[in-house]
Design a protein that fits this description.
This protein is α/β, with parallel strands linked by helices and 542 residues long. The protein folds into three domains: 4-181, Alpha-D-Glucose-1,6-Bisphosphate, subunit A, domain 3 (Alpha-D-Glucose-1,6-Bisphosphate, Chain A, domain 3, 3-Layer(aba) Sandwich); 186-408, Alpha-D-Glucose-1,6-Bisphosphate, subunit A, domain 3 (Alpha-D-Glucose-1,6-Bisphosphate, Chain A, domain 3, 3-Layer(aba) Sandwich); 410-541, 2-Layer Sandwich (TATA-Binding Protein), CATH 3.30.310.50. Helix content is 32%, strand content 25%. The chain is built from 18 helices and 27 strands. Strands 2-6-5-3-4-9-8 form a seven-stranded mixed β-sheet, sandwiched between helices. The chain has a seven-stranded antiparallel β-sheet with strand order 20-21-24-25-26-19-27. A five-stranded mixed β-sheet has the order 11-10-12-13-14. α8 links the parallel β10 and β11 (237-238). α7 packs across α13. It is globular and about 70 Å long. The termini are far apart. 53% of the residues are buried. It binds 1,6-di-O-phosphono-alpha-D-glucopyranose. Residues 19-20, 114-115, 278, 282-283, 322, 345-347, 364, 366, 368, 485-487, 495 line the site of 1,6-di-O-phosphono-alpha-D-glucopyranose (G16).
Length: 542
């Protein structure tokens, strides 16, 4: 029997999971006892762990391997019978969800700070996913946080580090550690959902794509699925080797950070299709030749075309989107005669709808798209769905999206982020907004019809989440939303979401920054953004 050691500790402030787990600077995580306190708080909050199986892996960022060795020792002390670890400590977030569901584990621990940069001076993160495969709901994250405030000791088994790169089973005490191929189960699941034969035929016909793995976790998945199984030309996958610092980049698949890909998709000779994924493989960005598809439009196009894909031929039960995501998907749902749910930001809010069979596809403006095949958003799945649609329709990305706008109208949309502003200034700005008497007033020629702080009652379990973003809805259907990000690690990030419906096809081609110029000005003025934050312009526009 291995020796279980009890280590005395004291609580750390601030171990409160945010939008998606606990994200902090590496310098915070490497403090003695910091990671251990949080992991013990998880184990103490999720029920009896004795004899159970846990999935474990991460996006390969700096500190991933060290954290895995620590968590394994603690899992052994908590009585887990088995831990399934992706080889090399690698497991994308959607693949983790897939493995948790397939092997019916007692949930999993995913080590990632998603799209945040990695390295000794950058970010690390950890989250617990429940046995259904999705991020822990608020009731559990609150319990973990509460435990972290009272914790006095944690337990671990004293043992040597294990070799994370060797497939097979080893033991820590009596606990089995299975090092498994992190790609195989996920790739097998994808083969059941999308038409691999049709996509192979598309590539064989000369269709060209670039996939930017951004030196993050999706490299091995994309090499296997796109190049080996689907026959895309070697070199289709760019930046395909996971690196602890993501090659010094910011693994965030948007126009600002995936610049290599954006450059590769520019010009008449460029590939037909481009896509990128983020640190942990759950986000995606979709590009055509000289054409950017917003995440909100991507969700709507995939919803309208899903029956072309084998996993969705029976149609969709419903669609769910986060509140700040544009209403493009709502128009598709209305036409299909299915419900469209509006949830707070955070993939965890989709879990109950998916479990209850109320929604089949989900999406967020923050480059997240997914379905009921797992309980996380899934970057590569979205890319494969697009490839399936392209293979069946044999039209360009731009033609598919513009035809979609002609049919449904365009929800012209943009998000403006003000990153790294003073927390007090950000909170002051939100308080200022909350105090405004806006309903019925006119702002720059538009009348405000609804003004509130979004609150959500889960239609399945009745749980209530409040203060999820300030909404200014206008009578003409335009809207402005203000939120503070729940995923940053430094200061505060103000997100301003601006949207306006355009029915006239002759105006569909306008750059959103031009089409939305008046609404953007209203949004800035109303929140006194420059006066309160000192920022005249946003840091990132998506
Ligand atoms: C996480 C959540 C998403 C959310 C995004 C942005 O994604 O899972 O649901 O939309 O953060 O959140 P915020 O606006 O609060 O920064 P990821 O990819 O970072 O895990």
């Amino acid at each position: 029997m291995a020796h279980v050691k009890t280590v005395v500790t004291t609580p750390f402030a601030g171990q409160k999971p945010g939008t998606s787990g606990l994200r902090k600077k590496v310098s915070v995580f490497i403090q003695p006892h910091y990671l251990e306190n949080f992991v013990q708080s998880v184990f103490d909050s999720i029920g009896n762990t004795v004899g159970k199986t846990l999935a474990l892996g991460g996006d390969g960022r700096y500190f991933n391997r060290t954290a895995i060795q620590t968590i394994l020792r603690m899992a052994a002390a908590a009585g887990f019978a088995r831990v399934m670890v992706g080889r090399g400590g690698i497991l994308s977030t959607p693949a983790a969800s897939c493995v948790i569901r397939k092997y019916k584990t007692f949930g999993g621990i995913i080590l990632s700070a998603s799209h945040n940069p990695g390295g000794p001076d950058e970010d690390f993160g950890i989250k617990y996913n429940i046995p259904a495969g999705g991020p822990a709901p608020e009731a559990i994250t609150e319990a973990i946080y509460a435990r972290s405030l009272t914790i006095q000791s944690y337990k671990l088994v004293e043992s040597d580090d294990i070799d994370l790169d060797q497939l097979g089973t080893v033991r820590i005490g009596t606990m089995e550690v299975d090092i498994f191929d992190p790609v195989a189960d996920y790739a097998a699941l994808m083969e059941t959902l999308v038409d691999f034969a049709a996509i192979r035929a598309l590539f064989a016909s000369g269709f060209k794509m670039r996939f930017d793995a951004m030196h993050a976790v999706t490299g091995p998945y994309a090499h296997e699925i796109l190049e080996r199984r689907l026959g895309a030309a070697p070199g289709t996958v760019m930046n395909g080797i996971p690196l602890e610092d993501f090659g010094g980049g910011h693994p965030d698949p948007n126009l600002a950070h995936a610049h290599d890909l954006v450059a590769a998709l520019s010009g008449p000779e460029s590939p037909d299709f481009g896509a990128a994924s983020d640190g942990d493989g759950d986000r995606n960005m979709i590009l055509g030749r000289d054409f950017y598809v917003t995440p909100s439009d991507s969700l709507a196009v995939l919803a309208a075309n899903a029956p072309l894909c084998p996993g969705y031929t029976r149609g969709l039960a419903g669609i769910a989107r986060s509140m700040p995501t544009s209403a493009a998907a709502d128009r598709v749902a209305a036409k299909l005669g299915i419900p469209c749910y509006e949830t707070p930001t955070g993939w965890k809010f989709f879990g109950t709808l998916l479990d209850a069979g109320k929604a089949t596809l989900c999406g967020e403006e923050s480059f997240g798209t997914g379905s009921d095949h797992v309980r996380e958003k899934d970057g590569l799945w979205a890319v494969l769905m697009w490839l399936n649609v392209l293979a069946r329709r044999r039209e360009s990305v731009a033609d598919i999206v513009t035809a979609h706008w002609r049919e449904f109208g365009r929800n012209v949309y943009s998000r403006h982020d003000y990153e790294g502003i003073e927390t007090a200034a950000a909170e002051g700005l939100m308080d200022h907004l909350r105090g405004l008497p806006l309903v019925g007033t006119e702002l720059d020629g538009r009348t405000v019809s609804v003004f509130d702080d979004f609150a959500y009652t889960d239609p399945v379990d009745g749980s209530v989440s409040t203060k999820q973003g300030i909404r200014v809805l206008f009578e003409d259907g335009a809207r402005i939303v203000y939120r503070l990000s729940g995923t940053g690690t430094q200061g505060a990030t103000l997100r301003v979401y601006i949207e306006q419906y355009e029915a006239d096809p002759s105006r569909h081609g306008l750059d959103p920054q031009v089409a939305l110029v008046d609404l953007i000005a209203t949004a800035r003025r109303l929140a006194q953004i420059e006066d309160r934050t000192g920022r005249a312009e946003p840091t990132v526009i998506t």
